[in-house]
Design goal:
CATH superfamily of chain A: MetI-like
Largest sheet of chain A: none
Mean pLDDT of chain B: 86
Order of helices and strands of chain B: EEEHEEHEHHHEHEHEEHHHEE
Number of strands of chain A: 0
Order of helices and strands of chain A: HHHHHHHHHH
Distance between the termini of chain A: 22 Å
CATH architecture of chain B: 3-Layer(aba) Sandwich
CATH topology of chain A: MetI-like fold
Structural class of chain A: mainly alpha
Strand content of chain A: under 5%
Largest interface: A-B, 25 and 33 residues
Radius of gyration of chain B: 21 Å
Number of domains of chain A: 1
Number of helices of chain B: 10
Strand content of chain B: 15-25%
Structural class of chain B: alpha/beta
Helix content of chain A: over 70%
Number of strands of chain B: 12
Oligomer: heterodimer
Shape of chain B: globular
CATH architecture of chain A: Orthogonal Bundle
Largest sheet of chain B: 8 strands, mixed
């Protein structure tokens, strides 16, 4: 009902080669996230100090890290954490951003002004300072990282939705709906939302890897999810210390980040085309 | 015949935002002291230059513009004061066709959803099952002369004329009594304009509709309307039977507008252009008669004293020195 025009997975993937590739990459990520324990050749936590820093081999395709853990296994199992964090943080931010953005863009002027001040204040905080403050208050764990990401992302999303809502609220078809007697809830959900959500979904789908990277950055500073959780960001920051001698530890953290970024970006473009009937091919 | 729509002393004012909380309110009167009736089953046309307030007047009748003064009645019942929620029933009795046919259709809905949406809005959802919706959609499309398979299309896949027809179908969905048509022929080819006008006329005959037609196309107005009013800076300067006004305009402004129409016969000498200059700003209305700055017949009295409505036979003209007495 919200997207109104019929939406089908086929349409999401229709287009040039990037769409199927994006779909495959995201699918691979999901499979790793769900079945990671069965797919991984070793336990991601099993340390073997005798084979620390071993080179890629048939036994360990991507070698082992400074504690002798299998990098490939940590990479595969890390997908679960990455996907969970990326999807939940982005999902919460999208919902919050859309709600606040619609209220600011469609509501009375004073409410808009008030929300804008709040958005700008939050937005002007340096991310790391904010993270330090929140973590000091709440302690480092997954929930805290999630909260920080949501606080940082919501103002951006809300501002995007607010701006496009404001430009669309005076459009002739909105006046036409009012003249038919449509109530504000219907106008917002059925006529404004489908026309403003497209850019946000693309932005959000491209932000998912950004969220994962942000967690990596927090982990690097010792503010992320505590070890030994197999997080790509932690692998990246740990591998950074040994990059001169054993560069593959960094590969284990960066390769999935790159592939995830590509996958979500390609899929985001497909999503945009599927949501906007004007961009659909044929007919 | 009785009056379907009665408008008395209507004024619409748009306020400019105040810079300081206690600063004097500035604003413009888009519509000033306008009164008229429309008989059921007839067509009433509003004519005027851009910015004369004709669209605002149409929107005020729909409850889409804030009116400050006067009252609007439809079939004897006054318009409720309040927000969109209190106007739902009021708006059900009338429908508006908007100037830009394509832009007035929600871009992500199919023609089917667009045409049947009025039923959803007015709570027919439970009563109207999928099959009935389909039947209603077919009936409405047939009524406006569109093939049934257009139901699958999106607004951007329609031509201007087709989008206009969808707009008419949407307007007719709830069997309104009054249709406010804001420039129904704007942006259409001449041949398509003719089709749309014939469609509107046919629907009027079949369904007994009443039209408030807003246009600056004098040929269209002459062709379809029974009565008309000419607007200048938010006021009616002349109102009466269309044929009578075209034959013998009483207000110098009407005369100027009609004289400015292009003539088909090249040998027929056109009178010199009478309307000079621009319409003054609504924020700084001229003293006396607002038209005196552009009137070829202005006298000293015109700059000092605003004229009252003057009855000339069946007509009303707002002028100290009408061309017809």
């Amino acid at each position: 009902m919200v997207t109104a025009g019929r939406f089908s997975p086929r349409r999401l993937l229709a287009g040039d080669w990037t769409r199927p590739v994006g779909g495959l990459l995201v699918l691979a990520l999901i499979i790793c996230a769900i079945g990671g324990d069965a797919l991984a050749p070793y336990s991601p936590f099993k340390m073997a100090l005798g084979i620390r820093f071993s080179n890629p081999s048939w036994a360990h395709w991507l070698g082992t890290d400074q504690l002798g853990r299998d990098i490939l296994s940590r990479m595969i199992v890390g997908a679960r954490f990455a996907l969970f964090l990326g999807l939940s943080a982005t999902g919460i931010s999208v919902i919050g951003g859309v709600l606040l953005g619609l209220i600011a863009g469609f509501g009375p002027r004073w409410l808009d002004a008030m929300l804008l001040v709040i958005f700008d204040t939050t937005y002007s905080f340096p991310v790391v300072m904010l993270a330090l403050a929140v973590i000091t208050l709440l302690g480092p764990d997954l929930g805290t990282v999630l909260l920080i990401i949501v606080i940082v992302t919501i103002p951006r999303y809300a501002r995007l939705i607010r701006t496009s809502t404001q430009s669309i609220r005076v459009a002739e078809f909105i006046v036409a709906e009012r003249s038919l007697g449509a109530r504000p809830a219907r106008i917002l959900l059925r006529h404004v939302l489908p026309n403003v959500i497209g850019p946000l979904l693309i932005l959000a789908s491209m932000d998912i890897p950004g969220v994962i990277t942000l967690e990596a950055g927090l982990s690097f500073l010792g503010l992320g999810v505590p070890p030994p959780a197999p997080s790509w960001g932690r692998m990246l920051s740990e591998g950074y210390n040994y990059i001169r001698d054993t560069p593959w530890i960094v590969v284990g953290g960066s390769l999935p980040l790159i592939l995830t970024t590509l996958g979500f970006t390609f899929l985001g473009e497909g999503l945009r085309d599927a949501l906007d009937p004007r961009l659909r091919r044929g007919r | 015949m009785s009056a379907l729509l009665e408008v008395k002393g209507l004024g619409v004012r748009y306020d400019a935002p105040r810079i300081l909380p206690f600063a004097a309110r500035h604003g413009v009167d888009a519509v000033l002291d306008v009164s008229f009736d429309i008989l059921a089953g007839s067509t009433f046309a509003l004519v005027g230059e851009s910015g004369s307030g004709k669209s605002t007047l149409g929107r005020a009748v729909m409850g889409l513009a804030p009116f400050r003064a006067g009252q609007i009645k439809i079939a004897g019942a006054a318009m409720p004061s309040g927000g969109d929620a209190s106007l739902v029933l009021w708006r059900r009795q009338m429908a508006m066709m908007f100037q830009d046919a394509i832009a007035s259709l929600s871009p992500r809905l199919t023609v089917r959803s667009l045409v049947t949406e009025p039923f959803d809005i007015h709570g027919f959802r439970q009563g109207l099952r999928a099959r009935d919706r389909e039947a209603e959609c077919r009936r409405l499309l047939a009524l406006v002369g569109l093939p049934a398979d257009f139901a699958e299309r999106y607004p951007h896949q329609l031509s201007g004329g087709q989008a206009r027809r969808v707009g008419v179908a949407r307007a007719l969905a709830l069997s309104p009594r009054l249709i406010i048509a804001d420039e129904p022929t704007a942006g259409l080819d001449v041949s398509v304009q003719g089709e749309i006008l014939n469609l509107l006329r046919r629907l009027q005959d079949e369904l007994g509709l009443t039209y408030l037609l807003i246009s600056h196309n004098l040929a269209v107005v002459r062709h379809v309307s029974d009565r008309m009013a000419i607007m200048y800076m938010g006021r009616f300067v002349e109102m009466g039977d269309t044929a009578e006004i075209y034959a013998d305009p009483a207000h110098p402004y009407t005369h100027g507008l009609l004289a400015a129409q292009p003539e088909i016969d090249p040998d027929k000498r056109r009178e010199d252009v009478e309307l000079m200059g621009e319409v003054p700003s609504l924020a700084a209305r001229p003293s006396g008669c607002e038209f005196h700055t552009r009137c070829p017949r202005a006298q000293p009295l015109c700059t000092e004293q605003a004229p009252d409505d003057r009855n000339i036979g069946q007509r009303v003209a707002r002028c100290h020195f009408p061309l017809v007495s």
